[in-house]
Amino acid sequence: MLTEQGNLAVDIMSTDIDDQSVMLDGWEQKYTQLETGSFEAKAFSLDMSDGNNIFRKSTNRRMHKCFAIPGNLIRLAAVLPGSDVSVFQGREIIAGDLFVLRPGIELELACHGKFDVAVVELDSNLSSSYIEDIDNNHLEGIDVLPKQATSGFADKINTAFLQKQMNVDLFSSMCAPAVRALCYNGPIDNNNNNNNSIEDVVTKAIHLVEHCLDDLDELPKIPEIAAHLGVSERVLEYAFARRYGVSPIRYFKFMRLHCARRDIRVGKLSVTDIAMKWGFSHLGRFSGIYRDTFGELPSHTK
Questions:
Q1: Which residues have CB under 8 Å from 209's CB, separation 6+?
Q2: 50 Cβ contact list (under 8 Å, min separation 6)
Q3: Domain count, the chain
Q4: Residue 214: domain span
Q5: Measured distance CA(255)–CA(249) in Å, rounded
């Protein structure tokens, strides 16, 4: 439920990770929780007199998120203080960093724990004396701007939320240095060929498994995935640990768990049949990890 505190709107969101996918209007989102423990997300927005707003969202669990943003405006996302290390588009991000959300493409975020982010739109209101001759086209190809190049943008946004106030002039003056840094300094390139190869391994492994989900009897084992991709099992383990903070076995286990939950919500099959369908042959263990992850038994899911 939305409540007002000054011009800060506070929305305590659902504790159900699947419900997060529909919490932002127009955003296409898919979440996979990658650890047990109750999930919690909170959202806030700072509304300004011109109708624009900055929204903030925090989550508390390791998770993988694929998403696409609506409209044609680029958005800046600031990783706020207290966030754990995460990976956006294959690039490591930490508290204080900025990352760019571009429309029209699928984006990927892997949170390795607590994640707190503020998102702002780069719209025409920023094309003033603060930011001359800058438009969204300048930001093409840029994913991440490190903390040291952002002029303290994340800290300023965090302070604005703590003080529960924001106006157009303050908003523009805060955004201007960060946008200029993105446009004129360019990204800091730490994505060497080795890192790109590692990201390719993870992406190809996930696509391979997703292709086989309709027939779990054909689901490849980790050695088979590694062999198919032409890498060692150790490289595969390292690639998943770097990107998601978990092993490939654990990643695919949680992927199947989420698939099972979505089937339970559809309600066409029994819990037992669904568990078997998704490769959970021991019903007691299935119920245990399900409860530890989603906070309820599979028989209580609606």
A1: 219, 220, 225, 252, 255
A2: 125, 168
A3: 2
A4: 193-300
A5: 10
pLDDT value, residue 21: 76
Q: In what order do the strands lie in the sheet with 75-79?
A: 2-5, 8-12, 41-47, 53-59, 115-121, 75-79, 98-101, 144-145
Is residue 296 classed as helix, strand or coil in its secondary structure? coil
pLDDT for residue 195: 56
201 and 260 in one domain?
Answer: yes
pLDDT of residue 286: 95
**Single-letter amino acid code for the residue at 86:** S
Low-confidence ranges of the chain (pLDDT < 50): 1-6, 124-136, 186-192
Q: 155 near 118, Cβ under 8 Å?
A: no
Structure confidence at residue 52 (pLDDT): 59
- List CB contacts of 108: < 8 A, sequence separation 6 or more: 64, 65, 66, 67, 88, 89, 90
Helix, strand or coil for residue 70?
A: coil
Q: Could you tell me the CATH number of the domain that includes residue 65?
A: 2.60.120.10
Q: Same domain for 215 and 266?
A: yes
How many other β-carbons are positioned within 10 Å of the β-carbon of residue 44? 19
